[in-house]
Amino acid sequence: MLVRFTKMHGLGNDFMVIDAVSQRVRLTPKIVRKLSDRHLGIGFDQLLLVEPPSRPDMDFRYRIYNADGSEVEHCGNGARCFGRFVRERRLTIKDEIHVETARGQAVLYLLPDRQVDVDMGAPELRPVEVPFQAERQAATYFVDVNGECIELSAVSMGNPHGVLVVDDVDTAPVETLGPMLEPHPSFPQKANIGFMQVVNRGEIRLRVYERGAGETLACGTGACAAVVAGRLRGLLDEEVLVHLPGGDLRIRWPGEGQSVRMTGPATTVFEGQIYL
Ligand SMILES: N[C@H](CCC[C@H](N)C(=O)O)C(=O)O
């Protein structure tokens, strides 16, 4: 089956985007893993599938697959690229686009300056909903990693995140602690692990070891989860500039029960077609 696709990225977090509205696509974890290979396939952190909605109040269904073939609940950088993609391919003429995700919905706003603003919905903090193994909800938890006691926050943006505060992201143990915390039994569905350095109450630096993809140049849901964690710990104000290795995102969170808003770029790199 010959399939058209578009290669895109959000601050270097890169995607293969497939229009499954106007073409038939059948994916398996094995096919996704083959496509994600940066030597033998297209190469990407995630594959984004654009499908017709299953709900009348939605414009599209938004499905996300990690490089390891796992289907996941949300992708923030991907949401911005999703909005840019459906507009550029004239799958919609709207500038406000409602998409359904595996665990909820997101609203994408295409801005005149070509940035995309996303209403990411409200974070989930109840441990059972993250999911995270804990007796009761708290701003931080302690988990044992090979005898070392690690303090972190547990936040879901639809997908699970563990967020640590570090003194300096440049020297943070992302390569060693990331792979040990991602599959940690405290996170029954694994987790994306964020390493956050607080610069001031309106600015952080962040690196993310992503579930199913490893460290990426940027993580949109990770940036949202980090700001939520920082606010829960009393370290951050409502609007935060998040510096990721691939660039900056602007995140706003008024507080519990409220939506997190994310604004940033979405870039189209090339079009292609491939036999699946
Ligand atoms: N690795 C994530 C999905 C992609 C999230 C990230 N690329 C973003 O921009 O939010 C997970 O397994 O939940």
TrEMBL record:
Pathway terms, separated by semicolons: Amino-acid biosynthesis; L-lysine biosynthesis via DAP pathway; DL-2,6-diaminopimelate from LL-2,6-diaminopimelate: step 1/1
| Annotated site (Could be important to modulate the pK values of the two catalytic cysteine residues) | 161, 210
PANTHER family, per this entry? DIAMINOPIMELATE EPIMERASE (PTHR31689:SF0), DIAMINOPIMELATE EPIMERASE, CHLOROPLASTIC (PTHR31689)
Gene that codes for this?
Answer: dapF
Looking up NCBIfam families in the UniProt record yields: DapF
SUPFAM superfamilies in UniProt: Diaminopimelate epimerase-like
Keywords (A to Z) from UniProt: Amino-acid biosynthesis, Cytoplasm, Isomerase, Lysine biosynthesis
Q: By what name is this protein known?
A: Diaminopimelate epimerase
Entry's family note: Belongs to the diaminopimelate epimerase family.
Q: What is the species listed in this Swiss-Prot or TrEMBL entry?
A: Marinobacterium maritimum
